[in-house]
Amino acid sequence: MRNCPGLINSLMTYVQGQVERGELDDKSVENCVCILHNLSYQLDKEAPEHFSITDDETTQKQKANEDKSKNSLFSSKSTKNQKELSFPAMDTPNPEGVSLLYNRKSLQMYLFVLRLSHNEATLEACCGTLQNLAGSKNLVSTVMSQAFEKLNGLPLITSLLNSANQNLQKTAMSLLGNMSRVSNLRATMAKEVLPQVSSFLSSVTPNMVESDGTIATACRMMQTLALAEPELSKKVFNRNLIMTLSFLSEDMSFSTARQPAGALLYSLWGQKDIQNMLKKQGMIKDTFVNTVTSASYRIITGIPIR
After folding, report:
1. Is residue 109 within 8 Å of residue 119, measured between CB atoms?
2. What does the pLDDT average to over 197-208?
3. Alpha carbon distance 137, 144 (integer Å)
4. Angle at CA 122, nearest 5°, toward 119 and 126?
């Protein structure tokens, strides 16, 4: 379908026209955005000729940064100096076909749809398209994430976490989780995203098992952002949130979220500044460091407990 002459151009032209007219809630827009969502899936793998990297030095630096990020995801020493990357193909003046799927003007159009549409299916497909572009762990996805942030997409995406639609909420959380892998976005994301993620986790109840995957993503993202920016994280960790994480870490019903919640608790106590703040709120070590959280931390990180 990506190689069907004129298809992508027609879809993009129609949606852009509806954006300009402010008419984004009809079924035709929903259908177009859903098709674009599908066409963007695994785009870098299925259309690799559009994403070839020729700068070996840049590639090596990116791989080094990714390796550091993996090794230090559960450490306060997470790197914050990932290079601002450039991908000239994003800025092609008159893109055609597949090139339209990742062009900067198209990203801007997707963000306009997120801002203006009230159709939840359209919002989910649009957010899912951005998630696809930022989903893999390669150079291009890093560039896409950086582009979303530069286009002021974070507030729009973060606002979707408040949606009552579980699928939309899950897609938005996954997109933000993907973006949090980019180290030089974490400071900005901590400011804009941590309060919303904290609010979401604090509202979790035992009857929210259907949102298990979304909760797990939230715990992992909070782990990454909070430990990258511990000063900012002090503002969001309160007794209510900690008690929620504690029950999640022990509730076998939350098969996906249980271990990320336990690993988050364990690592928080290991950060002296955060630990001191928690002690001032009357919290004790056993809530954070116990058999359950230690095992979760070991499983999630692969780091042996001393």
Report:
1. no
2. 96
3. 11
4. 140
8 A C-beta contact, residue 223 and residue 264: yes
Reading the block at residue 207, the tokens are 């009857």
Over residues 23-41, the pLDDT tens digits come to 999 999 999 999 999 999 9
CA distances to 79, 201, 219, 220, 301 from 257, in Å: 25, 11, 7, 9, 15
**Cβ-based neighbour number of residue 274 at 10 Å:** 21
**CA 102 to each of CA 40, 45, 146, 291: distance values in angstroms, whole numbers, following the listed order:** 8, 14, 13, 46
What DSSP element (H or E) covers 55? none
What rounded mean pLDDT belongs to the chain?
Answer: 88
The candidate with the shortest Cα–Cα distance to 156, out of 218, 108, 222, is 108
CA–CA distances in Å: residue 115 to residues 66, 119, 126, 154, 281: 32, 11, 11, 11, 39
By C-alpha distance, which of 151, 145, 171 is closest to 65? 145
Token output for 92: 């092609």
The number of residues in the chain equals: 306
Mind listing the pLDDT tens digit for each residue in 69-125? Answer: 443 334 444 444 556 667 788 888 889 999 999 999 999 999 999 999 999 999 999
Q: b/e map of 25-52 (b: 16 or more CB within 10 Å)?
A: eeeebbebbbbbbebbeebbeebeebbe
d(CA 134, CA 142): 7
- Mutual angle of helices 120-134 and 139-150, in 10-degree steps: 130
Token pair of 23 as six digits = 């008419």
Question: pTM for the complete prediction?
Answer: 0.88
Q: Helix, strand, or coil here: 296?
A: helix
For the chain, the first-to-last Cα distance in angstroms comes to 54
